[in-house]
Amino acid sequence: LTILQSLLGPLIGMLVAGLVIARLTRPRAQLRFSDSLIIAPYEGGRGRMFRFVNESIRDLTNVRVSVSLSWIETFDGVRERNFHQLSLERSDVPFFPLHWTVVHPITPESPLRGVTPERLRDGNAEILILITAHEDTFSTRVSVRQSYTWEEVTWDAKFSSIFIESMDEHLAIDVERLSRLDRLPEGTTRTAPAAEGPIVV
Q1: What's the pLDDT at 171?
Q2: How far is CA 134 from CA 23, 53, 76, 152, 162, in A?
Q3: Contacts of 63 (CB under 8 A, 6+ apart)
Q4: How far is residue 15's CA from residue 25's CA, in Å, rounded to a whole number?
Q5: Contact (CB, 8 A) for 125 and 12
């Protein structure tokens, strides 16, 4: 028993230490998201948008975004929570060095057609976001989850420019401008354009 303990003791200690170190050094994507999700003018209609930046010095490649809508709908007088996959203007990029504004165009085919602030509130809506990417330093896949509730949706606004001119006259981004908004006249996006079609209840 003494010999067995002398052999297994160090092995178990090294195994536990290895697991802890592996857990602490596991690569993670360090993404920073805008404080709110906005409904903004987009190509003559409206779009639901958020943006994010890579705060890590590690490069991310093959970045893919998946966005889902979760809210309550009424069918035959019965209210139930349903999930919808939202189509995006662009769902993936091969290389992600700066920032990305993710846009869901609100079209007649969108589950958000005709949406209003009241509809999001009554449906207790939530936007669920999953971002996956390839982290080059450790050559592995990483993922980040984010969500916005109906209370975190901003209307009648658009994102301000995030770009600045650096001292060496190169174009750069200012992370502190990530959530900065330009306000639009009231009703610009709160009121659904007729081209979107009827409101979904």
Answers
A1: 74
A2: 18, 15, 45, 29, 25
A3: 92, 93, 96, 100, 131, 132, 133
A4: 15
A5: no
- Give strand pairing partners of 33: 52
Q: Hey, what amino acid is at 20? A: V
Q: Is residue 199 a contact partner of residue 192, using CB atoms and an 8 Å limit?
A: yes
- b/e code 37-48 from CB counts within 10 Å (16+ = b): bbbbebeebbbb
Give the pLDDT of residue 62: 93
Using alpha carbons, list the distances in angstroms from residue 106 to 80, 109, 115, 150, 194. 22, 8, 9, 16, 12
Residue that the structure tokens 């990530």 belong to: 178
Burial of residue 159 (CB within 10 Å: 0-12, 13-18, 19+) is: buried
Give the containing element (helix H, strand E) for 96. Answer: strand 92-96
Q: What is the pTM of this model?
A: 0.82
Closest CA to 56 of 15, 90, 28: 28
Residue-level length of the chain: 201
Which one has a higher pLDDT value, 16 or 118?
118
Joined tokens for residue 81: 């929570």
Q: Average pLDDT for residues 74-86, to the nearest whole number?
A: 93
Higher pLDDT pick, 70 / 28: 70
Return the closest-CA partner of residue 152 out of 188, 133, 128, 177.
128
Residue 14 has pLDDT above 80, yes or no: no
